[in-house]
Amino acid sequence: MVRTWAVSGVDLHLDLTGTRVRAALEAALRDAVRTGRLAEGVRLPSSRALAGDLGIARNTVADAYGRLVAEGWLTARPGSGTSVASRPVAAGRVPPPPVPRERPVRYDLRPGSPALSLFPRTAWLAAARRALNTAPAEELGYGHTRGLPRLRTALATYLARTRGVHADPERLVVCSGFTQALGLLAQVLRSRGATGVGIEAYGHRQHAEVLTAGGLRPRPVPVDAHGAVLGGSEAGALLLTPAHQFPLGMPLAAHRRAEAVRWAHDTGGLVIEDDYDGEFRYDRQPVGALQALAPDHVVYAGTASKSLAPGLRLAWLVLPADLVEPVGEAKRIADGHTSTLEQLTLSEFLTSGDYDRQVRRCRLAYRRRRDRLVTALRRDAPDVRVTGIAAGMQALLELPPGTDEDEVIARAARRGLALEGLRAYRRDTGDRGPALIVGYATPPEHAYTGALARLCAVLIP
Ligand SMILES: Cc1ncc(COP(=O)(O)O)c(C=O)c1O
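The joint structure predicted for all components is written out below.
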């Protein structure tokens, strides 16, 4: 006999086997508590409700509860019903050893995160409210695979204005993060016969993994002071971070940009432009998107992970015409489309000017943080060379030759400071000396002074 129990507050499937209903109910409840399906403190339904649900006599349930209370599985308190009891450690049983705790991270200067404490909660909430108040009910159903048309229009307008992108809403695909976007591109390129993709010799670890999972072999290309050295790449596609090389920090020089476009024209190859932090430039005019030079050979990719928060999982591709249909189809198969509620809110956030305001606010905050980092290092750790700071939210700290990167990171960890070394971003051809990649946006505002002090202390041998 199998019965389902679904009552308010608790939803649980119980297998009642055998003809003796009370014994079966007791056994099923005991089993659910023992295996943890019913956790300590969970309140059980009243005997009346459970009896009604199972179609058995109320007394049978009350008797079963009574017996389990007597055995210590359940507790019953007047006024608060019957709940799962806490389980004392049985006499003679040795409690499991405590899980060794990692040394707590007090300060975090690892790269990758924007200042999450600057997330515009109030403005985002207001945008979400406005969006929900005005969205017709149909918009909450299955939506457009390539993204909400009004978001695509808002993004196209924004990208054309701020990054010079040739952005037609019909060529835009909204994705769940650049990570998904890259995976979709890899699939499409693979299905068209590509086998390899050129990637910068230093880069985001996960991106190489995503490309590999999509069936493409990442082939590292060297990076020098002018950015990626393309030199006749034989791969069918190139993944670049032209505005601000990740993680080294230099922009792709004008002659290298021209080379990349020429390569794409001559070979029919595709450049994927990862413009992850293109909005955050401090010392000079923003470098426009490479895509504007060759919209039919460059995929432009942007993300909200740096401008707003990675947790939103919102990103966008602007595609050459022939890739729109296959990438849209890959997106449909992957997950139908990205969450409509987030898309509605982002659309509202863009058109109201909140997105611009947030970018300007963060740009100012990051620039100040960057200046404080540079000043502190100049004063307290003058042997460390800081580069890659004209944009973005991470800096390259080149350590004196012979410094052991791992030893510096371990020393920092002992003092509660999380750091990351350049080696963690190296793909086999990288040949740079010891360095740290410092994410100066990561700590919350109140912890930044402490983080800087600890960084300098760790860097002084
Ligand atoms: C180089 C680079 N590109 C893109 C991204 C954004 O990825 P996603 O949109 O999946 O969060 C990141 C995030 O850390 C990054 O470091």
